[in-house]
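Sample intake — Putative proline/betaine transporter
Collected from: Mycetocola reblochoni
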Amino acid sequence: MTDTHTTTAQGPQLSPRQLRKVVFGGTAGVFVEFFDYGIYGFLAGTIALVFFPPESPTAGLIMTWGIFALTFLIRPLGGLIIGAFADRKGRRAALVLSLTLMTVATAGIGFLPGYATIGMAAPILLLVLRLVQGFSAGGEVASAYSFVAENAPNRSRGFFTSLPQFGSYLAMLCGTSIGVVLSNALPADALQDWAWRVPFFIAIPLGFLGYWIRRSLQDTLAFLEAKEQGDIAANPVTATFTTPATLRRVLFAVALALLNSSGYYILFNYMPSYLNRELGFAPGEGLAVTALAVLVMLVSIPLMGRLSDAVGRRAVLIGSAVASAVLAVPCYALMAQGSFGLAVLGAMLLAAAFAGHAAVINVTLVELFPTRVRGTAYSLGYNISTAIFGGAGPLVMTALIAATAVTAIPAYYVVLTAVGTGVAALFLRDRAGKPIE
């Protein structure tokens, strides 16, 4: 029997089975995307040794993070193209497309020969596959979170839309755990010779499972109603750029997402490399600190999503921004003491402060835009912010610390982005509990 939507004053009403399928379908691609980013970050030191000349490990690491940053420059393009596709053809079609591209590119990295085998062709091929990943990820986020939010009841939209974000950090925890197992169970030469490929191959069954789930889903009620009413933009990109109100919201989205960029890519993705190279922790210790901080995120994100349904998105965003700005410097100072216990305490406090923003930012951006341009406009604002302040973050941090020997630079970066998000959130018109446009 075909699943159907019904509508009440509280928005879309789905059976528990339907809602589980929606959440799992939205989460599947987000999981694969962040699993990829996680393992790339955790294995950055090994990737540098495999794909770049071994004479200068620092230069190799900077180039490894440089490739990471370059892939973010194509995310706004992927967001525009896949986001516009989602606005014209539906969220489900965009989700299937982005997940397919992402899975192929991630698995492809696992098959690449290294510098010792094919020379400079190795980092070039790595860059090409990372660009494909960046392109697909640019359209994945807005499509996935819009898919869940457009299917969720108004009164609990924050909670349900936080669950794919829960999945993204679960993916990070899985990547961290694999990194811990590989680094502790195998000698360093085995990790560099072949074991680094294993996490990338794991994306293959994950991608197939996500593809199967997404192909079985219906599109969202919001999109189907817009289609029935003829309210589908013929050219969502043009509609976004030629509508002043929408363009202002895109710029507003860039500011709101600032802390999200530094929070994920500096507090978590860059953390194992930072603890190992800059603060002298063993690789396994750096991964363990990150894993424990991620556990805090997994507990906190659904709670913060539920809280935002009760008190509003604005209050949660501002509270998280203030907490992150206040705690960043002292928490990084704790990590710099060289004690594993103090490093865990600092990382866990930062995770608790950041969790509110992580849980709420995506539902806030969904609620910021109307259905006819949501995929395009949301993707554009989110990906511009992520490209400038997120993807380039590890490269900038590594280069600045190498040039200045100031290991507290990541803390100042978190403070800067937290202040930017906090100021922007002051002007947010809260739509928690209200129908989306």
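Post-analysis note: DSSP finds 21 helices and two strands in the chain.
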